[in-house]
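Budget justification note: compute hours in this period were largely spent on complex prediction jobs such as the one shown. Inputs:
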Amino acid sequence: MTDSNPNDTPKDIRVSKERGIMRLFYHDGTEGELSSEFLRISSPSAEVKGHGPGQEVPQIGKRNVLITNIEPVGRYAIRIIFSDGHDTGIFNWPYLRQLIDEKDTRWSDYLQDLNSKGLSRD
Amino acid sequence: MSQVTNETVIECLKTIKGPDLEGDIVSLGMVSPIMIDGGKVIFTITVPSDQTEKLEPMRLAAQRAVSELDGVTSTTVIFTAEHAGGSAPSSQRPTASANPPKAPTNSAARQANNSAPVPGIKSIVAVASGKGGVGKSTTSVNLAIALAKLGQKVGILDADIYGPSMPRLMGIKDQPTVNGKILTPLEGHGVKVMSMGFLVDEDTPMIWRGPMVISALTQMLREVAWGDLDVLVVDMPPGTGDAQLTMSQNVPLAGAVIVSTPQDIALIDARKGLNMFRKVDVPILGIIENMSTFICPKCGERSDIFGHGGAREEADKVGVPFLGEVPLHMEIRKNSDGGTPIAASAPDGPHAQVYAEIAQSIINSLDGAGFEGVAPSITFE
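Corresponding output:
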């Protein structure tokens, strides 16, 4: 967990009708958009990250995963429940902000990683 | 008092909107036959098993509406779940009883993890320390009583499952009554109290792993008839483990008060407690220096047994308010152990005065720091 910055707390979180996109609106007027697949493969859960560096578990076949539900966690995070049953990821405000900021690099790293291992999004 | 009838209950339940706010729960066929026994009303509402948590407000609304009917002494509303998938229905959550709750499965523990504010409670304030033995519970009790004397409606939740001290500190020996699965809190010195200590004997150890603690805490928070409260003071156990994390995740805490002695060894742990709350975005209302100094009752000489001013320096250093100093005094200790906290037994004395001042500054910082505006709104389009 990183230390938080009050600007990282979103004002509004909206999930699109087909449950595939989460949009975050911030108090400072900025906003960001994250796909359910990207959120799913970026889950901070130990099931995805493992229990330390190098223990990451490759997430495959998540192309069609959608957001089933979102629960607030205290005042610092949300828990996202995905349509594949994954529900242990607690996304705190700084992490969500980081995902928005690093969306492009993280996504291409993910695709590259899948590619190099011969795995697929489907 | 008039007799409750099936018709009046059904009529009343027709005012409760169904899920998705369409229709009412009676015409949607969600309500079971109503059982009426004197003033007791019992019925079930059938909901999809994966929505029990989301629809909890609906259950509470139905319960509240029926409770307000003339002649109703108690209302029990139970969710029965339509099994859509493999998730456990919420009616299988551990029930409130003197027996230890069942160890929840992973998914049950998560189901109980509902971070919605507790209905009726405006602000929840955690009193924490990091280190044990610095006087957290004594501070919690006296603060709660001081808050009540300032006109607040106050409850105190003893979150120390392993070493509950509220029954003794508040001088309460009764057991809470159970209404359905809802516990009625006990009351002492104008404060509502709930503690694991009411449910087990003082000498009985709670030999529980984390998930049991989480489940018990969630129950003591949500399945207790707290009524309308301005402030719920939570007396936290020492450390930064399961209990602390549960409290931080389960409810949007309005703030945390850190108690420490001036001693370095206590301050190190206080800092950990403080940083934990910072990580989960809980505002630090301030630090209290307990056992701040000792004035000899015979000769009047002052001895700083644990040092002095360490907590104030720490507060300055980390940039949080310093709330006050409570001296190490026999009267405070003696009244604590005797179940007559000093804020209640000598409300005009100098010690009660210190607690009153701290309570006042807590009220000041809580104004406008309730649940509203805390969390982002979450919308499914």
